[in-house]
């Protein structure tokens, strides 16, 4: 009887042992105290490229004539742009549309007749990358004289903003560290090592209006253009451990 009880007890202990080990593994671990902060960094540089968007719009009684007139004017504009040094890779047709023009006759005896097509409007929109900003004013002026009659949107940007983005990232991290130190000092704890760091979206802010006299002199007979500066902003999220 004693031997049987001993064996039974051993079996019970053997079955309980793994269960206790599993419970120990499933027990929640103490969460490491952390502090998480976000910070922005920014850097400004002068733009080195302009993106122009403008359109040739022509009207005629027939779509064929409107398309022909529009194509002739746009061909002249594109030839002038190439003569100014714009490469083919920097010219892109971004929209082409034909719109019928309607006329609504006055109702007669209470009867409303359907509108009639009286002509067509053709719009051809061109997007141009100008890599020499000093030429922007002259290009706009010449394009208008050759047939551009709608648009004129200008966006100043940078062909390779990586240097500015790198500077903005460094500044963002420095600000994040300073913010974390301020928080931990106020809380009476010590800042530990970085546990996690990530970058949020970066963006280009609109140019600041800064008129350049040298550009005004170079483009004195054309449209005055001020390029200003582009500001690039980067956001970083940093999580630090806290020392016990």
UniProtKB/TrEMBL annotation:
Keyword hit for Transmembrane helix: no
Keyword Signal: yes
Protein name: Membrane protein
UniProt cross-references to Pfam families, sorted A to Z: SIMPL
Organism for this UniProt entry: Pseudorhizobium pelagicum
Residues spanning the signal sequence: 1-21
Keyword entries, A-Z: Signal
Gene Ontology BP terms: DNA damage response
InterPro entries: 26kDa_periplasmic_antigen, SIMPL/DUF541
């Amino acid at each position: 009887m004693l031997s049987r009880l001993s064996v039974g007890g051993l079996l019970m202990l053997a079955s309980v042992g793994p269960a206790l080990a599993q419970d120990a593994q499933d027990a929640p671990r103490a969460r490491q105290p952390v502090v998480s902060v976000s910070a922005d960094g920014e850097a400004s540089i002068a733009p080195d490229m302009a993106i122009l968007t403008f359109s040739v719009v022509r009207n005629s009684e027939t779509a064929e004539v409107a398309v022909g007139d529009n194509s002739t004017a746009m061909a002249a504009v594109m030839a002038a742009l190439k003569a100014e040094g714009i490469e083919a890779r920097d010219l892109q047709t971004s929209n082409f549309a034909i719109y019928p023009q309607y006329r609504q006759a006055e109702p007669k005896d209470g009867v409303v007749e359907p509108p009639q097509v009286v002509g067509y409007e053709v719009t051809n929109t061109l997007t141009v990358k100008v890599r020499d900003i000093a030429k922007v004013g002259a290009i706009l002026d010449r394009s208008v004289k050759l047939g551009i009659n709608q648009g004129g949107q200008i966006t100043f940007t940078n062909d390779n903003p990586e240097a500015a983005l790198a500077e903005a990232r460094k500044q963002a991290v420095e600000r994040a560290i300073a913010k974390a130190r301020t928080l931990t000092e106020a809380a009476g704890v010590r800042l530990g090592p970085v546990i996690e760091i990530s970058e949020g979206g970066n963006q280009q802010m609109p140019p600041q209006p800064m008129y350049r006299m040298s550009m005004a002199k170079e483009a004195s007979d054309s449209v005055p253009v001020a390029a200003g500066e582009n500001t690039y902003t980067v956001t970083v999220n940093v999580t630090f451990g806290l020392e016990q």
